Amino acid sequence: MRSKLFVPGTRPELFAKALGSAADGICIDLEDAVSESRKDEARDIVRQLLQGSEAATDKTLIVRVNAMDTPHFERDMAAVAQPGVHLINLPKPASAAHVRAAIDALERAERANGVRSPIGMLLNIETPSALRLASELALAHPRVKGLQLGLGDLFEPLGIARREPAAIQQAMFAVRIAAGEAGVYAYDSAFADIADAAGYRAEAMLARNLGFLGKTCIHPSQVAVANDVFRPTDEEIAHARKVVEATREADAQGLGAYVVDGRMIDIPFVIRARAIVESARSLGLLSD
Length: 288
Hints:
This protein has helices at 15-19, 39-51, 73-80, 96-113, 128-132, 134-138, 151-155, 165-182, 197-209, 223-229, 234-253, 267-282, and strands at residues 3-8, 25-29, 60-64, 87-90, 120-125, 144-149, 185-187, 215-217, 258-260, 263-265. The chain is of the alpha/beta class. The protein folds into two domains: 3-229, TIM Barrel (Alpha-Beta Barrel); 234-282, no CATH class. Strands 7-6-5-4-3-2-1-8 form an eight-stranded parallel sheet. Strands 9-10 form a two-stranded antiparallel sheet. Helix 2 runs parallel beside helix 3, helix 3 packs across helix 4 and helix 11 (234-253) packs across helix 12.
C-alpha cells in the first residue's frame, strides 16, 4: 500500500472517485474530517456505502473511527465493521490494554455484522505516550497490522515545527523500529501543504529510506507522488534479482556469505532482496 487516500465520511460523492483513483488504499474518515455535529450522519453514510455494491474493490479499504475516549467509538465500530473492510484505523491508542479493548469491540461488531474475514487494526502513533509505547502497542494483539505516524497531532501541541527535519526523522525512526520489533509495517503521516509537491516528495522519500511502507494522501494529486516514491526502482529490482539467484547458488554450494555486484551478501541482505522482488511482483513489474 504505497498510497492511502483519505475520503471524508460526509462526502459519499467522492467515494467512487477515490475507488477509481490510482491509490493502493482508501481510508474513509469518521474522525478529524467530520465535525462533531455530523458524526451520526457520517456514520450512517459510511455504513450504507460499505453495505452497497460500490464498496467492492481490490484496493485496501480502511475506515478511521473516532478515538475510544469519545462517545462515538462503539457506534462507529458497530457501523463500519463490515465485510470487505480490511483495516480499522484507531486514533490515539493509550496502552496495550486500550488496543485489546478496541479489538474486543471490533470482534463483537464483526459477529453482529456477519464478518467472516477478520479485520486488522492500523494504530495511529500521534501522542507522546503512544510514541514512547509504540512497540507495546504494536505487540498488543495479532490483529495489529501496522503503525501509522501522525506528525501533526504529535508535534503541534508540543510547539514542534511540523517541517523540522530532525524531529521528523527521529519520530519516523522510532516508529519504524517499534514496528520492526513487532513484525508489522510502519506507515507515514499526512502532509497538509497540498500545493507543495516537492515537500511531499521529500518527506515521502525520507520515510521510504527509513523503511516505511507508504504515505498518506489527503488530496488525489499526492497519490502519483507516493506511488512513484515507494515503488522499487529498476536498479533495486535488478540487483535484488541477482541476489536471489546468487543465494540459490550459494545455498547449493553451502556458502554463508558471497559477493554480488561487488557487495558482500548474507542473510539480512537476502531478506531485503526477497522483499523487493515480492513487491515488484505484486506491482506487476516482474512477469516471472
